[in-house]
């Protein structure tokens, strides 16, 4: 009898212990979950109040304006997420303008962390080549001043001639001389097209080393910066505005670009604008543009194919490349 009683009591005690132990574990897990939930709530409240997603989107948009011809982002930030290690993630859709409308061309997966090496921009393009595939030929050697021969080819013009007139297209070309942006813009405004981007000479090979390709009698720089639509924002990035690339706004566009470069240099670390955004030699480029002024040597334009063909009559245009094409939308606006 005593043995039976002892065994039953032991089982009862063990059962009670297991129940209390399980309840204690559940309480600990619940407490940890609630603490993590409150922690993440605080993280997201701070991130939202600091407008980090809007700041990053704005700076990514600036980088695209300068380094990727005819690639743009939406004005409103997409949904972003912040994890417990204060790493923010955001997928940014990318568009290109062909004619009067924008078309999806890819996306950027942004990862922005606090620790070194934890931030990156990963590009995903809808075609095999990224939208920086346009190359522009320098008119002359930056160091010696030796003139390069024009890159003559009729293949782009031939392509446009074969396309139905109810088509709009994207076109890039170089010029045989450095030009003031307003000078090239006014020349192109004689045609029913829209100018989207102009490659800028920012002191490459003269003020700093830059990547390039050459066949001996020409030179194409890599990582070229360009003049695009001006971009401005309010204090907390809640609203922003853009100006068209046209002759009326040309002076304001150049001032806006210099102001944006200056703000980036003063407010952000080199790790942010160089390693994260990919804005290499930003200080040298800013100093050169501030001192020497703006000089362009080509453009990216869009418009009806038959109107683009008329650009062939402009003296000094060469290295012509055809980009994306779409059905007629020129009367959309």
UniProtKB/TrEMBL annotation:
Residue ranges of domain Sigma factor regulator N-terminal in the record: 12-102
InterPro entries: Sigma_reg_C_dom, Sigma_reg_N
Sigma factor regulator C-terminal domain sequence ranges: 160-323
Domain of life: Bacteria
Regions crossing the membrane: 25-47
Sorted UniProt keywords: Membrane, Transmembrane, Transmembrane helix
Keyword Transmembrane helix in record: yes
Entry keyword annotation includes DNA damage: no
First and last residue of the signal peptide: none
This protein's name: Sigma factor regulator C-terminal domain-containing protein
Organism of this sequence: Bacillus salacetis
């Amino acid at each position: 009898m005593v043995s039976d009683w002892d065994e039953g009591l032991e089982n009862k005690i063990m059962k009670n212990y297991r129940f209390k132990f399980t309840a204690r574990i559940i309480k600990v897990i619940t407490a940890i979950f609630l603490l993590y939930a409150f922690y993440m709530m605080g993280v997201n409240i701070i991130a939202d109040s600091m407008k980090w997603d809007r700041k990053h989107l704005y700076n990514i948009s600036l980088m695209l304006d300068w380094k990727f011809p005819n690639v743009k982002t939406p004005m409103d930030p997409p949904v972003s997420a912040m994890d417990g290690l204060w790493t923010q993630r955001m997928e940014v859709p990318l568009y290109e303008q062909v004619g009067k409308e924008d078309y999806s061309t890819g996306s950027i997966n942004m990862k922005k962390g606090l620790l070194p090496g934890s931030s990156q921009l990963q590009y995903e393009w809808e075609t095999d080549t990224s939208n920086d595939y346009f190359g522009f030929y320098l008119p002359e050697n930056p160091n010696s001043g030796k003139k390069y021969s024009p890159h003559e080819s009729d293949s782009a013009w031939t392509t446009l001639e074969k396309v139905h007139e109810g088509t709009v297209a994207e076109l890039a070309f170089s010029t045989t001389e450095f030009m003031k942006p307003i000078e090239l813009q006014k020349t192109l405004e004689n045609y029913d097209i829209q100018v989207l981007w102009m490659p800028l000479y920012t002191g490459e090979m003269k003020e700093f080393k830059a990547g390039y390709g050459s066949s001996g009698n020409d030179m194409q720089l890599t990582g070229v910066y360009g003049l695009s639509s001006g971009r401005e924002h309010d204090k907390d990035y809640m609203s922003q505005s853009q100006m068209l690339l046209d002759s009326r706004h040309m002076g304001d566009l150049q001032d806006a670009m210099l102001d944006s470069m200056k703000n980036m240099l003063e407010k952000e670390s080199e790790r942010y604008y160089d390693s994260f955004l990919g804005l290499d030699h930003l200080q040298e480029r800013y100093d050169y543009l501030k001192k020497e002024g703006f000089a362009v040597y080509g453009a990216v334009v869009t418009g009806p194919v038959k109107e683009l063909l008329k650009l062939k009559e402009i003296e000094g245009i060469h290295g012509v490349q055809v980009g994306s094409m779409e059905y007629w939308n020129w009367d959309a606006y």
